[in-house]
Amino acid sequence: MENFIINTPTVLHFGQVVIQGLGKTLAKYGKNVLFIYGKGSIKSNGIYQQVINQLNLFDLQYVEYHGIKANPIIEDVDKAAKLGKRNNVDVILAVGGGSVIDTAKIVSIAIPVKNPAWDFFEAKVKPEKSIPLITVLTFAGTGTEMNSFAVSQNLQTKQKLGYGNDLIYPKHSFLDPKYTFSVPKDQTAYGIVDLIAHSLEAFFGGGEATLSDRFVYSIIKEAIDYGPDLLNNLENYELRAKIMYAATAALNKLTFYGRSSTDWGVHSIGHVLSLLYDLPHGATLSIAYPAWLKLFENRIPERIIEMGENLFGVKTTKETISGLESFFKSLNCPLKLSETGIEYDKNIILKTMKLNKVNGFTHKISVEDYDKIIEFLE
What we know:
CATH architecture of the largest domain: Up-down Bundle
CATH topology of the largest domain: Dehydroquinate synthase-like, alpha domain
Helix content: 40-55%
Strand order of the largest sheet: 1-8-5-4-2-3
CATH superfamily of the largest domain: Dehydroquinate synthase-like - alpha domain
Distance between the termini: 38 Å
Structural class: alpha/beta
Number of helices: 15
Largest sheet: 6 strands, parallel
CATH class of the largest domain: Mainly Alpha
Number of domains: 2
Strand content: 5-15%
Radius of gyration: 20 Å
Order of helices and strands: EHEHHEHEHHEEEEHHHHHHHHH
Number of strands: 8
Shape: globular
């Protein structure tokens, strides 16, 4: 087991009506709020008005930046940061899913600097401070509510990259499972895939950390045991709560401790697919994870079999891969690009994989492997 430091500075507020503590929490950080959200679903489901009530209750001044899309783009980060600078905001409030919160995270470090936000992703500038960020989660899956990571894409350079820095941890995150009741069945399924993928990215990291492995098994078993039931009972509070908590635990670094590294090769593949075809993030992962396992089936068979034994009670790599595919299929998530209905170009995928340097941190993917991956993706 490797040395590690546990430092998770996010205060997590979990459960029913936790929103009642939002205004008081925001007021601790100042009076001027930058309120970031998506394309308007929070207005139709009533969450927007509940948030506004909290802002008004504590006489907080706010400016809104909305329209954040799934698979967030760096242009929105720069525009929101410009709005925040112009209004001298004290605190950022992000209400939404992973795309909204990831965008707000980068905005929090972009406001104090003059550089365009993409410079962070290219390591041209390093943040020295951030605007405090408070989040209200409306989608379970991404885990961004309790970690120091964010993803954005640059449509001009055809890149989708991740970024990590302790300065972008949310100060507080509010998680009410009822706020995910309106998430439709397909998106709920994609969130379940996402939390499984996050857990496995840690599992396939470097080093031996048996307790962290057990955390991975438990988190994924929550998804396997309760995910299918949730899809048939979208307004069941207990099921929503189980999946929401599992999704947070999958990426709040609980599964990282004691490892020398995590991997993220599957996410690297998935990012290319969402960048090119705007597929939902979870859909790219249900396609990419089986493909990645097939690529590494003969390279790390013992680790894949260990996964299969603990999750599906099977003894071979092929049975393990089949078990994961069967579960994803039970959620009605695609296993192949051909199942998505999109028109894809293998040459463009290959070119974009090369441009984005698709790879893992632990298990290396060579450029020569790209053709095999694309074959498995089809």
